[in-house]
Specification:
One of its GO terms (cellular component) is plasma membrane. The protein is of the alpha+beta class. The chain has helices at 4-13, 68-75, 97-110, 113-119; strands spanning 21-22, 25-33, 40-46, 48-50, 53-57, 78-83, 86-94, 127-132.
Length: 134
């Protein structure tokens, strides 16, 4: 089972042929800029589309703190996204409460563990929209 650094490497090497389909759902590769290092940081994330946007969840398995990729995009919302062989620039933003109320169940349809993750932490797990930019 791929995930983490190996997932990113196989996904990139195969144009998403390996890694896009993962555990019954789909993943993309999100590349943020490290907020202290300035280095690119790539993370495989489960996604779904909502109009032109790609939706991801900053669950971190229900950990008490936000994942590093979320902290990075808060510092710099300009990101790169790879979906299968397509790579593009996007602007990341946290869903509004109204958007989240609609998108959370939409994401939990493909990864029901999100509901368990939210129950296991006091933090409000963010839903993030990755909006492609020209």
């Amino acid at each position: 089972m791929l995930f983490g650094k190996e997932h990113v490497e196989r996904y990139r090497a195969t144009g998403g042929e390996e890694g896009h389909e993962w555990n019954g759902t789909t993943t993309l590769i999100l590349t943020t800029t490290g907020r202290t290092s300035g280095e690119p940081r790539s993370t495989p994330l489960i996604y779904r589309t909502d109009g032109d946007a790609y939706v991801v969840v900053a669950s971190y398995g229900g950990a008490p703190d936000h994942p590093q990729w979320y902290k990075n995009l808060q510092a710099d919302p300009q990101v790169r996204v790879q979906v299968k062989a397509e790579e593009f620039r996007a602007r990341a933003r946290t869903a509004t409460p109204g958007e989240k109320s609609r998108l959370w169940p939409y994401m939990a349809e493909v990864w029901p563990q999100y509901d368990e993750y939210q129950k296991s932490t006091d933090r409000d797990i963010p839903v993030v929209l990755l909006e492609p930019v020209p």
